[in-house]
Every structure is written in C-alpha cells, then in structure tokens.
Design a protein that fits this description.
Blueprint: H1 2-10, H2 19-30, E1 44-48, E2 51-54, H3 55-72, H4 80-106, H5 113-121, H6 128-134, H7 144-151, H8 157-181, H9 188-199, E3 201-210, H10 224-233, E4 243-252, H11 257-268, H12 271-276, H13 280-287, E5 296-298, H14 305-312, E6 322-328, E7 331-354, H15 361-379, H16 384-391, E8 403-408, H17 414-421, E9 428-434, E10 437-459, H18 464-484, H19 486-492, E11 498-499, H20 516-522, E12 534-536, E13 539-549, H21 558-587, H22 592-598, E14 605-611, E15 616-617, E16 621-622, H23 624-630, E17 642-644, E18 647-657, H24 664-694, E19 697-699
Antiparallel strand pairs: 1-2, 1-19, 3-14, 3-18, 4-11, 4-13, 5-10, 6-7, 7-8, 7-10, 9-10, 12-13, 15-16, 17-18
Helix pairs in contact: 2-8, 3-4, 5-8, 9-24, 10-21, 18-19
GO molecular function, one term: peptidyl-prolyl cis-trans isomerase activity
Transmembrane segments: 12-32
Domain PpiC: 344-445
Length: 701
C-alpha cells in the first residue's frame, strides 16, 4: 500500500467549497456508499439475491434523487405522486448498484493501486471525477496545474481517500464492461447484410390480399378449448407482476365559491401595489405562486381559450398597464404588461379525426363517406363540438369538442397547416388527408401578438374548511358503503364508480396516479374489502378491492379470451388464404394481371422504389413484413404467398439494386465499428437485464 500512501499524501483539494455536496454527487453518479461499512440503521428495506439493502442506503439515494429533482425543477410542488416516482427511481438505483457489486464479485474484477494512479494522471481518458472538476472550459483539456494545487491541500485528505475509491469503482465497472463486450462478435455476412439493408431498393409488382379474402370471420369458429390451449402454449407472453383490480369513488378537492371569492379578493388587493412596486421581481417572488414569472413572453397558447380572450382582447393590453385579475385554468392571473409585439402567426381550431390508412384506397373512400355524412349534419345545424364527441377518433380532444387550442404553423403536419392558415375564422374546411387520417376542421381564429409581462399568479386552492367538508362526505359514503353495499350507495348518492382494471404496485391508476396508500390497501387486503378514506393529492378516495392475482401471469379473463379468439380466427383465415392464393397462382400461370382480371375487387400495385431500409413502398405506403420477405425472393418469378401487415400477398420482383457507384467493401469498413459498438451495448444490456430478471429481489419498503 506504499503507492497509495504516496498518492494520499499528494492528493488534497482546495477548490471544493461544498465537499459534502460533491461526495453526494459521487454517490448519486456511481452508486458508491462512501459513508463507511454498510450498517442496518433502521433495518433493511429489501434484498437482492439474499444480500440485504439497508434502509439507510436506500434513504441516502432517495434524498439525492429528491434533491436533484428539486434543483432541476424549482418551484414545482413535490406531490405524493411525484414522490412515489422518485422513491421508485431510488429503489431501482440501489437494486442496480447491488447487482453490479455482485457481478464485480462474481467475476473477481480487481483494480490495482497503480491503475488508479495512472488513471488519475491520464491525459487520454481521465476518470469522470477528474474530467468533471478539472477540465479547462477554454481548452477542453485537464488543467494539470489546478489539479496539482488541489492535491496539495491538507484539508481535503479524507475527501481524496473517498475519491480514489470512486476512481477504483469506475475502473472496475469499465473492466466488467470490457470483459462482457469482448464476447460480442460481428461476422462479415452480418456487415454485408446491414449495408445491403441500408441501401438496397427493389422494384416489382404485388397484389395484397386481406385476411377476409379467405372468407368472413364467422366462417372460422373457435372453440373454448382452443382458446385455453393457445393460452397455455403461449403463457410466457402473459407473465406479469402481482396485480389487483378495484373500483373506487373519488371526491375531488375542488375549491368552493367562497374559496374563489377569497382568492380574488386577495389578488384584487394587489393591483395597485403591483402597479407601483419599486422592485417588481421581488414583489412577484413574494406574492406569486409562480415566483419566477418576471419579464416572461406569453402568447394565446399559454392560456385557456376564454382566458386568452380576456387578456388579448382587453383594452388595457398596452405597456405599463395591469390586466386582470383573470380566472384561468385554476388560477387568478394579474399581468403587468411590458410590451406588445408581433410574433409568429397562430391559429385556434377544432377538428374531427377519422382514422384511415392513406395508402389504402378503400380505407380512404370509407373515411370520405363518413366525412360527407358529418358535413351534412353540420349543414343541418348540428353542433361541431357534439359531432366531435360522437365521431372523432382523436382521444386527446374528442370530449373537448375537438378543440386543439392555439398553435403555430410548425406544430401541425403540412397539410393541416395549409388548410387552416388558408381559411377564415368560423370556416369549416375538409376533409383534409394527412398521415393521421381525414380531418374536418373548424377554424376558430388567428392572432400573431405576443406580450412580455410579469405575472402575479394565485392558485385556487380549497381551504381547510372546504377540505374537511369534502372529507366528511367521503367518510359518510364509506360508512354507508360498508353497511348498504358499495355500488348501491354510490347509486343512491349519485356518485361515479371508477373501475381500475388490473394494476401492479408500480402502475398508474386512472385519476389517482401512483399512490402508495392505495397500493398498500390493495396489496394487503382481502377481496371485497372497502378502504378507509384515503387522502390523495387531488382529493379523497374510497376503494373496494375486487380481485387479486398473485400467479405471476395474466388470468384468462373475458378480454384476453376475445384477444386470443381474434388471433386464432386470423391464424385460420391465414391458413385458408395461403391455400387459396396457391391455387390462384397455379391457375393464373403465375400472372398477377390474370389474377386481377378474374377478381375485379383486387388491385395490382407496381412500384419502382421499394426501400429495404424502412419498408416503404413508393405509391403504397409502409409494410416492413412484406418488404422483408422481398429481400429473399428470386427475380421475375411469382412468389409463394408471403405475409403482410394485414394479410398475405403474391409478389413478382423485377429488380434489386444498390446505388450507382457505391463501394460495398468501403461501406462495410465504415459501418463495422458502429455495428460492433451497437452489439457490445446490446450484449451488456441484455446480460444486465437477464441478471435483474433472474435475481431474487425482495421489496419490503
């Protein structure tokens, strides 16, 4: 250890004012526990392959993850939902750290003192701690003079003892990575195929046959025993963590009218003070729920439709004026205008989306027929919003009347943008075909103004009195549900009952998100149990547990039976379709034209540019499965039936070519290092995922 003693005598540091914070960074970045031997302060929170995870170690990582989140998101409230996500992140980190430690031990990875010293002094690839803290920003090189001064500070001896262990761990992990990556092999055929896949195009013709060309689904009945047999044969596809299903009634924490009046009265009282505040930034910091809203740029897109109208149509929208307070999206907003200028053109619109495949003529025609029906209803006086709720296949806004909000030209696809920005307010245009489908669009308005302002914002929050009142309602419901029945009580009190579907400890539950108290109830209670009133970030919850599944597999429920039935019908249709196409191929003498002539409902697709790289067929669309099959076909010969994304096809290729002038060998040499790197990373990721998947992980948090 003489060498390490020599290094320790030299390695002291002067620049780190916040040494503790930096040590925290080491732990956060590299999963090192530099606080000394592991101790079970407060017990263990779990184990990995029998190795306990001390609560102190987990909490240390959680605190660092939480601190990092707060530093990156100043002003953001850490709700219980966010906190649950941070705790899950810390848990995964500590599990991964333990697994890596076990792998290092398994492969007896060692790093000598000499290797640590050489790494610290390396000019080529210094350790992360050296790069992060001693790189000269002007040159991008390690500032050796600064590093040597840091080494000679006697006040940081303990710090360097810890830092050298961080370097040692980094080198150990790198050795483990290199050992695993050395097992990756790239063969010449692999490189050749990759280059050909990247640059090869095909030309030829094909006829697509949908599954129902073999007959309707009703011609292919499926028995219950077939569904069960398929499930058992493919059971591995349905592995899952333990799940629960439940139903619940949610009592939202909604501010009362009195709460709203109180907030408005408070912000009304700030108008004159805000207008004359000598230090505007300080005033906003103290008075606003968004403390950094000083000299910010706003457009209509930053407000609700009604809020934007009140602000941008206000007669006070001028420099030096106060606009508001305006009620907007759960806030009262008071704006002090600094400037009003011209920005990017914006539009506000609503749409009704009819999903079609743009490359499928029949699909487009069917969509256009529905679009004509909708347009006729509009002409007869129907409400656009009601028709959007009824017909639109855009789940993000159908129930909001199809309202898309305010947007710039760049936010939408070109066809949509062209239709909107060429129209007039109040006009209905379309149907417009984009890659998403057919759109019927109602143009609401245009604006190109933007403002620079400072804002005092007050969030509308329920008072403690309001919160207690809502909680009492939840408690009354809970007591009645226990004696009279959950569904019956909800019906009598005219409350909505929400079904959760299956969920695990770590999945989001509709309306509730990831809630530890909900998970704790669900995974510790018996079927049919009704929870106590559970406090959530946004309200109160009363839940009834419906089912438990600890088998490790999804149960064969009605929904899964229907999915498997559809798969079996498709398999049977596919088998029949292949046989039918084989007969067609034989009877037509191998001619696609003859097949089309005898079956008028079919169409032959001819394309001169079929890209192997992305599966795109010029003039048709994308079908990776079909194009992949083309790669192995013989030219100028009708293929056997090949599977497509929606059925089967008969294909005749007449060309396969690489770009003129492409040197295959040169391109292979260029791609080889990239492919090797990808395979190395893939190998390590797969290895580590397998180690995690097969590890016995106990979570006792």
């Amino acid at each position: 250890m003489a060498l390490m003693g020599k290094l320790r005598d030299k390695t002291h540091i002067v620049l780190f004012i916040l040494v503790a914070a930096f040590v925290g960074l080491i732990v956060f970045e590299w999963g090192m526990n530099f606080t000394g031997p592991k101790q079970s302060r407060g017990g263990d929170v779990g184990a990995v392959n029998g190795e306990p995870i001390p609560a102190a170690e987990y909490e240390q990582l959680y605190n660092m993850v939480s601190t990092s989140f707060r530093q990156r998101n100043p002003g953001v409230e850490v709700t219980s939902r966010i906190d649950a996500g941070l705790r899950e992140q810390a848990w995964n980190m500590v599990v991964d750290q333990t697994l890596i430690n076990q792998l290092l031990k398994k492969y007896a990875v060692q790093v000598s003192d000499q290797e640590v010293l050489e790494a610290v002094n390396s000019e080529v690839n210094p350790p992360g701690i050296i790069r992060q803290n001693f790189t000269d920003p002007k040159t991008g090189q390690i500032d050796r003079e600064l590093l040597e001064k840091a080494r000679q500070d006697p006040q940081a001896k303990e710090f360097w003892l810890k830092a050298q262990e961080m370097v040692r761990r980094e080198l150990m992990i790198n050795k483990l990575l290199m050992d695993l990556k050395s097992m990756a092999i790239v063969t010449d055929p692999e490189v050749t195929e990759l280059v050909q896949r990247q640059y090869t195009t095909f030309s030829g013709s094909f006829i697509p046959f949908p599954y129902d060309f073999a007959g309707p689904a009703s011609n292919f009945p499926v028995k219950d025993e077939e569904i069960t047999a398929w499930y058992e044969a493919h059971k591995g596809q349905f592995q899952q963590e333990p799940t629960r299903s439940a139903e619940f009634v949610f009592f939202p924490l909604t501010p009362s009218a009195q709460d709203s009046l109180r907030a408005k009265k408070e912000i009304d009282g700030l108008v004159s003070e805000f207008a004359s505040a000598p230090d505007e930034a300080e005033f906003v910091k103290i008075q606003s729920d968004i403390p950094d809203a000083v000299n910010v740029t706003r457009t209509r897109a930053d407000f609700s439709l009604e809020g934007g109208k009140k602000i941008f149509d206000s007669p006070k929208l001028a420099p030096g004026q106060i606009v508001g307070p305006v009620a907007d999206q759960g806030y009262y907003r008071l704006l002090k205008i600094k400037s009003v200028s011209t920005g990017e053109p914006m539009a506000s619109a609503s749409h009704i989306l009819i999903r079609v495949n743009p490359a499928d003529k029949a699909s487009v025609e069917s969509g256009q027929a529905l679009a004509r029906k909708i347009l006729d209803e509009l002409k007869n006086g129907a409400s656009f919003a009601q028709l959007a709720a009824k017909y639109s296949q855009d789940p993000g806004n159908a129930q909001r009347g199809g309202f898309l909000g305010w947007f710039t030209k760049e936010r939408m696809v070109p066809e949509f943008t062209q239709a909107v920005f060429s129209g007039k307010p109040g006009q209905v245009v379309g149907p417009v075909l984009t890659r998403f489908g057919l759109h019927i669009i109602k143009i609401d308005g245009f604006d190109n103004r933007q403002i620079v302002c400072s804002e005092v914002v007050r969030q509308l929050k329920p008072s403690s009195l309001t919160s207690e009142s809502i909680k009492r309602k939840a408690m009354v419901f809970r007591d009645d549900a226990e004696s009279k029945g959950f569904a019956e009580t909800a019906k009598l009190q005219k409350l909505d009952v929400v079904q959760t579907g299956d969920f695990t400890r770590q999945t989001l539950v509709s309306k509730l998100g990831m809630d530890e108290d909900v998970a704790s109830f669900a995974f510790s209670s018996k079927d049919g149990a009704i929870s106590q009133v559970i406090k959530n970030d946004n309200g109160f919850v009363v839940m009834k547990l419906l089912t438990k599944n600890d088998t490790g597999y999804r149960l064969l429920d009605d929904e899964l039976k229907e999915m498997i039935k559809a798969e079996l019908v498709r398999e049977k249709q596919g088998t029949a379709l292949k046989a039918k196409l084989a007969e067609l191929s034989k009877s037509s003498g191998g001619s696609l034209d003859a097949i089309v002539q005898s079956n008028p409902g079919l169409r032959k697709i001819t394309s001169g540019i079929i890209s192997w790289r992305d599966g795109n067929i010029d003039g048709y669309g994308s079908d990776r499965r079909l194009v992949e099959a083309m790669a192995g076909m013989e030219l100028n010969k009708l293929s056997a039936p090949v599977q497509t994304s929606n059925g089967f096809a008969l294909v005749k290729l007449d060309g396969r070519q690489l770009p003129y002038g492409l040197d295959l060998e040169v391109e292979k040499k260029r791609i080889l290092p990239q492919l090797m790197k990808i395979k190395q990373e893939q190998l390590f990721n797969e290895y580590f995922e397998a180690a995690r998947r097969t590890a016995k992980i106990e979570d006792n948090r």
